[in-house]
Write a structure and sequence with these properties.
5 helices; about 30% strand; single chain; four-stranded antiparallel sheet; eight-stranded antiparallel sheet; alpha+beta
């Protein structure tokens, strides 16, 4: 009996022990799951949520880093920088110098690198974040900082002025670079890379200009010209939604889906301006308005003589590539009348921006914009009121067919400018804004470009009929520089030369 009772007691004790162990493990597992759920919920809270929960006991040392630190990458970049700098200097000179020539302002006849070296100080990457993981794509944002010691000297020439070497000193770059990797199924597994600078936060490129062996006053306004050229190149070629698409790996690939495409048409009516600043010693300012989304496609109103409260009521059409990130720039200028057009420069009365995201497609909107001395508020010293400008806006989203037509017309315009530049009719692409080529038209009125053909734009409502170059015989043999002395009522690209050769505004 003792043996049997011992066995039974042992079984009962063993079973009880196993049941207790199992219950304890289940309890611990339940607690772990509950704790993990609490941590997950806690991890979803942001800084403001935690402050509400903790109140005055909120620890200030808690941070929510958006970017992952990459100290290892900066270490390797410092080691590789001498080789990278040498190779990058050649690439930058080869790719940026044509842009300097293309975007140089009319007051400058030549703008090239005399010397370009990136120095010995490597850039620093503050952090990297993976913004999105789409099928076939990886989007990465890189917080990029560079306060280096480059040696950059620009050779600047203007009419009647010998070449002046101008050095860019104390160069600093602060920006966020967006890199999109297009994935492929074959090694190296990446078929193309898209590179752009994010518009928010706005890229900062700080530097000071110093004339080498001369004075910046030799060319009036040279500092502002170079600043505007650098800003235009960055805005119009590098800043998102604009981007650089680079096929890699030697694999034939269609990059058309990665490239920037027209998204819609913005109809702009410049109505009037009020209480403008007077820039004339005798009489009043002679204002006109320049509007653009991209600096390469500027259009202007007629000049109103001797009036600080002008009324234009002129309508233009402009292409928009990305309504979410792009903005309309409205600049009011005072027409400068001078016999030597290479010396005179029109003075800004005021400037303003309007974000396209504030527009609803197909719903007209009228806004009155307060004019500022500069869009860079840090550089504004004159805080006086500069008046306002009233405009009417209507945004139309393109269909697939309209998008393709607008893209082809935009390419045709740029190709025609290139041909005119090679023929010596215009000095740079920006000179085409002087109306010499009658190319920009009223925005997406998208002037037709067939020489002598006067190709019309489309019957799809993309804009007014282009004048093409059917009237080229009127001005092909003439040289156009500087600003116009004529104040015609036609609405041509910036600083139009001829009265009737440019694109007409929509009435």
């Amino acid at each position: 009996m003792g043996l049997i009772s011992g066995i039974l007691m042992g079984l009962i004790f063993g079973i009880s022990l196993m049941a207790g162990w199992r219950h304890m493990m289940r309890y611990r597992s339940t607690k772990r799951i509950a704790k993990a759920a609490d941590i997950k919920v806690l991890g979803a809270l942001n800084r403001d949520d935690l402050k509400k929960i903790c109140g005055d006991n909120y620890p200030e040392w808690i941070s929510f880093p958006v970017y992952e630190q990459v100290k290892w990458l900066n270490k390797q970049l410092s080691k590789l920088w001498p080789s990278i700098a040498e190779a990058a200097s050649a690439v930058i000179k080869e790719s940026v110098e044509p842009l300097l020539e293309e975007y140089r302002p009319p007051g400058i006849t030549s703008l090239k690198f005399s010397k370009l070296s990136l120095g010995t100080v490597a850039p620093k990457i503050e952090g990297i974040r993976v913004q999105s993981l789409k099928k076939g794509q990886i989007t990465m944002d890189i917080d990029f900082r560079w306060g280096g010691d480059p040696s950059i000297i620009l050779g600047v020439e203007a009419a009647l002025v010998a070449s002046i070497p101008i050095q860019l000193k104390d160069l600093q770059v602060f920006t966020v670079i967006r890199v999109i990797f297009q994935l492929a199924e074959e090694i190296p597994c990446i078929s193309a890379v898209v590179v752009a600078l994010l518009s928010e936060p706005k890229p900062r490129i700080d530097y000071t200009l110093k004339a080498v062996g001369g004075s910046l006053t030799a060319i009036p306004g040279i500092s502002d010209m170079i600043d505007d050229t650098v800003n235009t190149i960055v805005t119009d070629t590098l800043q998102w939604p604009h981007r650089i698409v680079v096929p890699i790996g030697g694999i034939p690939v269609d990059t058309s889906e990665l490239e920037l495409k027209p998204e819609g048409k913005l109809t702009v009516t410049v109505v009037k301006a009020n209480d403008l600043k007077n820039m004339e010693m005798i009489g009043k300012s002679d204002p006109y308005v320049v509007v653009h989304i991209r600096p390469l496609f500027k259009v202007k109103t007629k000049v109103i003589d001797n009036n600080l409260n002008p009324v234009w009521n002129q309508t233009f059409e402009l292409i928009a590539e990305d309504r979410e990130t792009q903005a309309l720039t409205v600049e009011v200028l005072n027409h400068f009348l001078c016999f030597d057009q290479d010396i005179g420069q029109d003075k800004r009365l005021g400037i303003a921006k309007f974000r396209l995201i504030e527009l609803e497609p197909e719903i007209p909107k009228e806004v009155t914009l307060s004019l500022l001395a500069s869009l860079d508020t840090l550089k504004v010293k004159d805080k006086k009121d500069r008046g306002n400008c009233t405009i009417k806006l209507l945004y139309h989203k393109f269909s697939k067919e309209e998008q393709l037509i607008a893209l082809e017309e935009e390419k045709r315009i740029l190709e025609e400018r290139k041909r005119l530049k090679e023929a010596g009719v215009i000095g740079s692409t920006m000179d085409a804004l002087d109306g010499a080529a009658s190319l920009v038209g009223s925005g997406v009125g998208l002037v037709g470009s067939g020489v002598g053909a006067g190709v019309g734009i489309v019957g799809s409502g993309l804009g007014a009929v282009g004048s093409g170059l059917s009237k080229a015989g009127k001005f092909m043999g003439r040289t156009f520089t500087g600003h116009s002395n004529k104040r015609s009522g036609s609405s041509t690209p910036v600083n139009s030369i001829q009265e009737n050769g440019g694109a007409k505004p929509l009435q």
